[in-house]
Design a protein that fits this description.
By secondary structure, the protein is an alpha/beta fold. 34% of the residues lie in helices and 18% in strands. The strands form two sheets. A six-stranded parallel sheet has the order 7-6-5-9-8-10, sandwiched between helices. A four-stranded mixed sheet has the order 1-4-2-3. Pfam families: SpoU_methylase, SpoU_sub_bind.
Length: 264
């Protein structure tokens, strides 16, 4: 007697939005969170509660940014249902893995922490300089950082494809972890009494340089936690440098010092 034909159900296609794509609507965002794509930004309307999205975001270490509905309406005119996310252009890595890998390779840690750098083009320019100076990892906060979108990728001239990026929910905990890992945290701030070019400024060891926001610099708590503070001498009338330029000055001074140490 012939057996009945049993049609196997087709596997459900995986939802894979393109990098830098905006995804909106509750179900679409849920599917994105379930996929292996990493999310750069996740916006949710203030007052909206959705346990599944919130749980998935927590599991994926994605910070939910609560915003007024007007912001979501500016992002898209379509029915967003109170939630919008942006797919990341890069794959974020764990800082602990980077630290372990650097030490295992016998290299001297050389990291860069960006505290609330929100301008996309500044971030891209910083990433380009960081890659050129041998920075092994850029660390950004989960909230209050520039989106790593196509503009950032373009401004970095592709450098973001060649450098590790870590997204940490709390930079104060990150600083503690780096210090416990034997890495000196150096804050670049105009409030410092130590000139970048003084002989006492040593950037040759394991270091993580902190650069602060375009508006108000490094947050007070991070300044208090930093092991050392340095300032870039300014000889003109303008009171500050663009943060991407300032980052280049500090990182290349570290490169200069390290090259001299190697030559000796």
């Amino acid at each position: 007697m012939p057996q009945p034909f049993n049609r196997q159900p087709r596997p459900r296609p995986q939802f894979r939005p393109q990098p830098d794509e905006m995804v909106f609507g509750i179900q679409s965002v849920i599917e994105t969170l379930r996929s292996d794509q990493q999310i750069d930004k996740l916006y949710m309307e203030k007052g909206l509660s959705h346990p599944e999205i919130q749980n998935l975001a927590f599991q994926n270490r994605v910070t939910i940014q609560r915003v007024p509905v007007e912001k979501l309406d500016r992002l898209t005119r379509k029915n967003h249902q109170g939630v919008v996310c942006l797919v990341a252009q890069v794959q974020y890595v764990k800082l602990s893995n980077v630290v372990a890998d650097v030490y295992e390779r016998g290299e001297t840690p050389f990291f860069l922490l960006l505290d609330r750098i929100t301008d996309v083009r500044n971030f891209g320019a910083i990433a380009r300089t960081a890659e050129c100076t041998g920075i092994q990892c850029i660390v950004i906060p989960g909230r209050g950082a520039a989106a790593i979108n196509s503009d950032a990728m373009k401004t970095s001239s592709g450098a973001l494809n060649h450098i590790s990026v870590c997204r940490e929910p709390d930079l104060t905990e990150t600083v503690k972890y780096l210090q416990e890992s034997g890495i000196t945290v150096v804050a670049c701030t105009e409030k410092s009494n130590r000139d970048l070019y003084e002989r006492s400024t040593d950037l040759t060891g394991p270091i993580a340089v902190i650069m602060g926001s375009e508006e108000d610099g490094i947050s007070p708590e991070l300044l208090r936690m930093a092991d050392n503070h340095v300032k870039i001498p300014l000889l003109g009338s303008v009171g500050s440098l663009n943060v991407s330029v300032a980052t280049g000055v500090v990182l290349y001074e570290a490169v200069r010092q390290r090259s001299i140490k190697v030559d000796k």
